[in-house]
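Two records follow; treat each independently.
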Amino acid sequence: MKEVYITKISKFLPNRPISNDEMEEKLGIIDGKSSKGRRIVLRNNQIKTRYYAIDDNGNNTHNNAQLTKEAVEKLYDDNLKPNEIELLSCGTSSPDQILPSHAAMVHGFLKNGNTEINSPSGACCSGMNALKYGFLAVKSGQTKNAVCTGSERTSSWMKSDTFEEELKYLNTLEENPILAFNKDFLRWMLSDGAGAFLLENEPKGDLPLKIEWMEGYSYAHELEACMYAGADKLESGFLKPWSEYPSDQWSKKSLFAMKQDVKLLGENILVKGVDSLKMAIEKHGVKPEDIDYYLPHISSYYFKEKLYQEMINQNVEIPWENWFMNLSKVGNVGAASIYIMLEELASSGKLKKGNKILLSVPESARFAYAYALLTVC
């Protein structure tokens, strides 16, 4: 088995950062009324800026595959030519189409010659699953290198025309503000962007990051779907897919809008997250105090202190001073968040040889979690 190193990291954030005051102009006002939920959600998530693949005239500037292509091309240098990529593994929760696969579309834009492609599906963990496929390919010796990506282009899903039916009862927010989380909150959290890692079997570059191990856990056997799109959730908890509805119902029921069962989220996301964290680090004999940088992908700062408290409750406390996050600046970029977070840390000048970095990615779709431990070489 080979050792595997992240030897280069890149990111692509489209256009300019969008402030909280500009969001509704970009995404559109629903039913001619400013969102009552927006202020509630932004106060909780504490995101200040985010990025959209939409220009100042309201035109789309990139699709998801194009965002990913831009991030991959930033990896090119004298040590990596386009036609030298042996594996392209691309994760996203917002592909541009059902078929062809996301990685196939990215490869089509890259035009870099023949290569193996892989497209893990899912939500935020799809980016980590893309990384794990590349990690295992290089580790097993199947390839000498792999380019792994996470990306999202959710702005087009968040535009007002998608949510007209979903939010027609917006006036009930004043009576029960939690509906803002159920119906409206994803519009004020999600961001567009892409990140890419180059994996190699030799420690190249200034501060290569050795991937020590990766672990993943799903709780779908215990819990019903929490975040979903392309389906309607029935009273029983069963997800009825779009393909079982007449086509005239797709827009009337906003079947392709992203939705979140917030009650289910609040009851489970942190408890199961720390439970899986304990399993991962105990399996590999890692103690919380061994971790120099903890990079948690969280959707909102609303969960930050609650996550810390749950760590204390389960005796796996990682001190605050070891946490590294950039949610307030870039927003929730889903599958790309962990790539963009690690790129910022690696570019900060803070890392020293021997530092241990723990990547932690939850996925609320049906509660899955992915982890990776890195060592700075």
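The next record belongs to a different protein.
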Amino acid sequence: MIIFIIGSLILTIIYVSHQGIIATEIFTVGSSTNCLINSKHTDQNCHWYFLNYTPSAWESSWTDNIEKLQNIVCETLANIDNLNKSVLAVERLVELQKFGRNQTESNKQSSDIFLSRMFYQQKYINPITNKSSKGVIVSQLIEPLIGLLRDPLSMCNRVNTLPASVYDGAIGQSKRFFLLSVAAPFYIHSSTPSPNNNVPMMITSNKRNTNLLPWMYERSKLNTLDTETDMRRGQNILIDLGSSYFGNWNGDTTANAGRWFYEHYKRFGIKFDRIIAYEHQALNTKTAWEYPWTNLKAIAKPYDHVVIKLDIDTPQIEGPLINEVLNDSTIHSLIDELFFEHHITVKEMVPSWGIQPGSLKDSYILFTKLRQLGIRMHSWP
């Protein structure tokens, strides 16, 4: 349960796991980058750094066996264990997409055990001595990499024993299986005592967007943030590679991207300062796709919140672009949330994708590596 009392600038968080309450903390919310409350060490600054990506046990079972499961994905999803987990996970993600982490009376919270986690740690930096010390560790939930890396109830035959309601929205272009950072719960796991014992830590928030947590705009190790002036200049940027039209794709409103991002982020009070959309059909493809990451590096800073969607249905262009993200730290350090439809050969998707290079194992490896770099990586449908 997470309770925000923004008016008085106090954030009370009751951390709950499937085993019960982990801890209760009170943080001051503000635009300051100071780490401590009521401390003489007011010249210390806080920074957040990505620690690691930890898959859930459910995800690990798929990753470890994906070569064997390549040709029996739907059959595997239909077994009772995976089916129950799929239903519970989808219901939890739908709830979070609608209400966000502020939902205080959820009866679906026990399903968080099926979700994976991104871990971050706070670091204090003393600008005078340049010494640093470690602070609180948090983890934030993200949907697991399982099945076809998309809504597990959307591409396989429906199971008659399940209530019809669980299939509401389970279409080919289903976006129910995303957990955006702005909606994802976060949990405290441990902390190192501060220089002043018994002084609580501060989790600062984006001044304009209170649902945008600080590790989503200052997690990069390349971040040389020194003053809160930099923080105030931070932008929220959406780059849509393969945008088609804002509200539809070839007339299909369920396949839209621009409107979906706009509406879902707006739901949690997040406004994009910039939306940059690329569409190859009206452009010279030889030159148009040479520049997306050049443009990204020109406009974005490590303290910006950057969301990117890549789906242009052209693997020979998508492949080099995603590999640049994977292999170039000056690119992946700028990206906070990334959505990508990875076209490979798997029988359930052949009617839509045809025969493509690569297998489902390649998708699992790619998405895991990108999450291990600190990017909230999602499989666009």
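Discussion point: The two ends are 30 Å apart (CA to CA). How would you locate this feature using only the token line?
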